[in-house]
Amino acid sequence: MNLHEECLLRYLKYPDDLSYSTEILKLNNYILEKRFLMKNFVAKSMTISYTDDIK
Fold it and tell me: What is the rounded CA–CA span in Å between residue 42 and residue 31?
């Protein structure tokens, strides 16, 4: 069971805790987004090629 399913199950059991479950999902999505950005964009953009030709 993933986090989204766990939060849905928690909401179904305890509907009054919707804001808590929503905050957990927001935090999880934020972490996943940052991890994706770091893995796919930041690491690739830091690749710099140097040349030895100095004139």
Answer: 15
